[in-house]
Amino acid sequence: MPPGDGRQTGSLYAYTGGLLRRGRVRRILELSGYRITTGWPPHGDSAVAVWGRTRPAQRGLWIATRRQANVVTVEDAFLRSVLTGRSGQMPEGLVVDHTGIYFDCSGPSDLENILNHADLGRADLKARAKAGIERLRRAELSKYNAFDPALDVPERDYVLVIDQTAGDASIRLGGADAATFATMLSAARSENPDALILIKTHPEVSGRYRRGHFSGADLDGRTRFIHAPVSPWRLLAGARRVYTVTSLMGFEAILAGHKPRVFGRPFYGGWGLSDDNHRLARRERALDREALFAGAMLLYPTWYDSCRDALCDFETTADNLEAQSRAWREDCHGYAALGIRLWKRRHFRRFFAASGKRLTFEPDAPHALKSRRRGLIWAGRETDAIRTRFADAGVKLFRVEDGFLRSRGLGADLIPPLSLVLDDLGIYFDPGRESRLERILNAGDPGPAALARAARLRARLVASGLSKYNTGGAVDAADWPAEQLKILVPGQVEDDASIQKGAASVRTNAALVARVRADNPEAFVIYKPHPDAEAGLRDGGAMPVDADLVLTGGDAASAIVAADEVWTMTSLTGFEALLRGKPVTCLGVPFYAGWGLTRDLAEMPERRMARPDLDTLVHAVLIAYPRYFDPVSGQACPVEVVVDRLADGTGSIRPGNRALARVQGAFASFAWTWRR
Questions:
Q1: 273 with 352, same domain?
Q2: How far is CA 478 from CA 43, 112, 252, 472, 559, in A?
């Protein structure tokens, strides 16, 4: 629990390096109101901090006994990190227990007291718990999260037996021992005589750091190991029954809808949600899944926001960990990148560094294919020939492009992006083939919690006036005629891939403005040149002559607010206008058209069958499809962190080498054509 829950904070005497070192654990404790110190504590009214029930913790326990001091036990929270603690990755939260510790059944803990006595039926807690369980399931979040989504899970209707690392304190203090695991496997076999038995090993055993309780001698014709880093949520979804001793995966089994057979005395046993071999009389009431989740995940831990260096709620930690886990899972096989300009490469190494795997930059497709890693290509550089080469070789090719909340400054001015999209199917600006964004939208409702998050994000973007590039100040629209229909027409770079792929019969800015004027002769037409063209960095084509006003300078978001409608070919400004409740007319086929939210004058792909509401579109476009990078913490992050950075101007990434980029650009078209 965070400060304010009635616990006393102050000095904590510690005697292990993990608590004394200046690092994440100490920082979380300090933010919680504790002052970490060492030495001989005063007799009586003092507190000694120990890490779990490890061997070094015995020193602190001995001192606490001698000085009659209170013991505060610190441990990792139940959502910890992407990799295991042995990798050196720091936790995203802690449990700070003043009574005992959750895995020690010999006495009560703060968690047990919460589950016994707290009002877990409150409407707000129930709603958050229900949303939280669904969040863990959809994002496949667990204590450790280095799962490979490319791995297949076995066919359904198996029995899942969960192993643990030998010597783990939660086993001994959970009233079990090595013999308990043998009893569990025997029970699984006898109670399911016709079933396949899968033994899931602990991630640290899979990583060869420690051993488990089962070996090859325990296997037979219908019993086998699952060592591979498969998501526990996928394993639980296909299981007929689940058997555990004290593993946290037993808790996840309850959240997934199982009633697991439990052979130890873990924190989640004894509340009526598990089939327990042993009961604890102290556990006095029956709970439902939401109440168990509320106690264990919402009230008990102290969660940490590793992007903002602050304490936070469960939902914020879940946002951060989901972003980090997604980056690791997508990048875990490494990439052979091609078509990436030199000035972008340093930023790419940071953006795609989550997995620690190699990212190499190759001159052409043949070199990339030699690596046998997945291909990564700047979307505008992909050709039919390159796509065919990768398909024939059976190697996956991902297109990469700037995201929709990009930066504070222009890409053509060599400002690196804070968001990118990776698309294994197509790319969002090419309606000629399916994109991953289309598939997300056609999949339907992402769930109430996701839609509420999207609504909050949309409100924040509108209130802060953010757009893709966030250049210029507010537009002064005081002189715009109040009595006329005011139509904003955003200019585009006419050789941009979104025009080449997504425009219909109208393909130039001049033709677009002429069409708007022809269809709306009485309107006040405002033409806003594309920021790249306005800065002289790219060609915006001939200046339209049919506009009443050419709006130079000023931010696109404020221009949208001042206008009544937006007409566009394929500009992102149309999507930004939808966020602000403005009618949008599309003469091309941008990614946000064809879903029933815009007036479409071009023929739309029949693939776009869904009819999402605005928040479903926002969730797909700004949350589910792109990835984000936080330059302050140097890690993958959720969209909300990037919104913070763009809103307050912190964390801007310095431009690349402009001279180098211009020299490379002069030769890029020739070199690329020759190589491919």
A1: no
A2: 72, 62, 58, 17, 12
Residue 447: φ, ψ to 5°: 110, 155
Q: Are residues 561 and 671 in the same domain?
A: no
Co-location of 417 and 524 in the same domain: no
- Reduce the DSSP state of residue 448 to 3 states and report it: helix
Q: State the Cα–Cα distance between residues 161 and 189, nearest whole angstrom.
A: 10
Query: What's the one-letter identity of residue 591?
Result: F
List, for residues 83-106, the tens digit of each pLDDT value: 988 888 999 999 999 999 999 999
Using the 3D structure, point to which of 287, 313, 345 is the last residue of a domain.
287
- Residue 413 has a pLDDT of 61
For the chain, the domain total comes to 3
Helices 448-464 and 123-139 pack at an angle, to 10 degrees, of 100
**Confidence band (pLDDT; 50, 70, 90) for 530?**
confident
Cα–Cα distance between 544 and 366 in angstroms, integer? 44
Q: Judge contact between 514 and 546, C-beta under 8 A.
A: yes
Are residue 509 and residue 374 in the same domain, yes or no? no
Question: In this structure, what CATH number is given to the domain that contains residue 396?
Answer: 3.40.50
Instruction: Report which residue type is found at 239.
Output: A
> How would you label 344-357 residue by residue, b for 16+ Cβ within 10 Å and e otherwise?
beebbeebbbbbee
Q: What confidence tier does 2 reach under pLDDT thresholds 50, 70, 90? A: very low
Alpha helices, H only, 472-604: 497-502, 509-519, 531-534, 556-562, 573-579
